[in-house]
Amino acid sequence: MSDEKNRFGDKLHELEKARENLWAAEQDRKLIEQMRARVKSGQLLCPKCHEALVERSENGVIVMACPKDEGAWLDSVTLKRVLSNK
Ligand SMILES: [Zn+2]
User: How far is the CA of 80 from the centre of ligand 1 (A)?
Assistant: First the structure.
């Protein structure tokens, strides 16, 4: 009897875990959808103010800059080039 109870407990635990995984998968799916929508619209958004980033040239380096001047973003290749050009 107690063995059966334990098995039931295990099943409940598994169910709980499965629910958590479902929830996590749902969150991932939402994030991916948001990213896809951004890519589709061809816009990268500022992570701070969510305005569309604008392309700007700073000292010959193209950066994606926040229109409110909260910052600028570089892709990894550009960043490495800037860092090696001290
Ligand atoms: Zn911003």
Answer: 23
Do 61 and 35 share a structural domain?
A: no
> Token digits for 4?
């059966």
Task: State the distance from the centre of ligand 1 to the C-alpha of 68, rounded, in angstroms.
Answer: 5
CA–CA gap between residue 50 and residue 67 (Å, rounded): 10
Tens digit of each residue's pLDDT (9 = 90 or more) over 22-68? 999 998 888 878 777 766 667 788 888 888 888 888 777 888 899 99
Handedness of CA 16, 22, 24, 27 (dihedral sign): negative
Other beta carbons within 10 Å of 63: 20
Do 1 and 37 lie in one domain? The reply is: yes
